Amino acid sequence: MPDSANALPRHVPVLIVGGGQGGLSLSFLLQQQGIDHLILEKNRIAHAWRAERWDSFCLVTPNRQCVLPGFSYAGEYGGKDPHGFMLRDEIVAFLETYARRVNPPVREGVAVTRVAPREGGGYAVQTSAGAMTADKVIIAISGYHTPIVPRVGAALPASLPQLHSLEYRNPQDLPEGGVLVVGSGQSGCQIAEDLMLAGRQVHLAVGDAPRAPRVYRGRDSTDWLEEMGHYDMPIAEHPSSEKVRQNENHYLTGRDGGREIDLRAFALRGMKLYGMLDGVDGQTIRFRQDLTQHLDAADATYLRIRKTIDDYIEREGINAPQAEPYVPCWAPKSDPETLDLEAQGIGSVIWCTGFRMDFSFIDAPVFDGRGYPGHDRGIATHDGLYFIGLPWLHTWGSGRFAGVARDAAHIVDHIAAALAPREQAMA
């Protein structure tokens, strides 16, 4: 790959902002089309996987779904565990191997600070290494930018360490004592389990994220759902339409070969569960009286997924083992109202409360009131601007390894078609 110290070109036909799986996929396909381009990566290739995940982090989708243009886990990479779930460092190694195969034109350590349309077409781009222009700009930096820490965190005792899930690495790095984890999405549940397995007393403020089965009727649930075409459903055909982009991800884990996450089972093992955090009075945390509601709602989603699979098996006449009926293993006698930080020996708080998108460096009229870019399958409403890697950009897999190749191909085909008339005129 080119030396990041080289000076930036004054102009490129296509500029890609971000060097993750989306940017690498685009580069592979652009090279196949013979389209000159450049990737600018603020940090290093695969930085988000490398530096923004905790030590025990692993995929929740099977390795076999890691299929990038010209490169797949079970194929060119030669992975030996297609039904397993890569750990963080294995994901980085997978992407580094792909980067060597793609050999993209990339400048690492260069931040893009402004992208603005130019009069007459194309874009002016300001970077930490100088200015340049581009005919087309593709934003490949996902949608997880600014960590969200609720304002109520400011009311916690100043002596109590707080960190966001982005900063969490392992239980050993935390101060001694119990840990309050706020949020029960993918990160919250997995971090809470990581701490529990390390022997920490965990207090988990449960939100409205749903849960999903791991292995059901003899197969991983993702195998069934993929076979049913669930992951190929475009957002335009989803019952919730664009509202699905605001949904919480289902929680489950790929840890130790993959298993379900059942917060009720965690409670039986000693984890303390609460409703959503509602306020702080000195050393006392107040919670909403909605723990039972959230546990029941998560189970309802879990059972709906099981029934969807049951109906498919029956409809297709598939011979699959029967499943035991689901029976909740635990229920709270009452929804806890408060937590005394001092009495319970809480030594730290981890905010697993998500991220906000921050595309403020893009000075183009494409964003709605929430800051979400207007686009059709990644093709923005302003000519020459594109997005890739956003959750439900087109399908469920758009923000994951499962769908990025398809999205990249669609964008590159659109760019190739747009650039062809200009090239023909210059011939």
UniProtKB/TrEMBL annotation:
Cross-referenced InterPro entries, in alphabetical order?
A: Auxin_biosynth/cation_transpt, CHP04046_FMN-dependent, FAD/NAD-bd_sf
Where does the record place a coiled coil? none
Identify one Pfam family in the record. Answer: Pyr_redox_3
Presence of the UniProt keyword RNA-binding in the record: no
- UniProtKB keywords: Oxidoreductase
- Family matches, as NCBIfam families: MSMEG_0569_nitr
Q: Which PANTHER family match?
A: FLAVIN-BINDING MONOOXYGENASE-LIKE PROTEIN (AFU_ORTHOLOGUE AFUA_4G09220) (PTHR43539), FLAVIN-CONTAINING MONOOXYGENASE (PTHR43539:SF78)
Q: What is this protein called?
A: MSMEG_0569 family flavin-dependent oxidoreductase
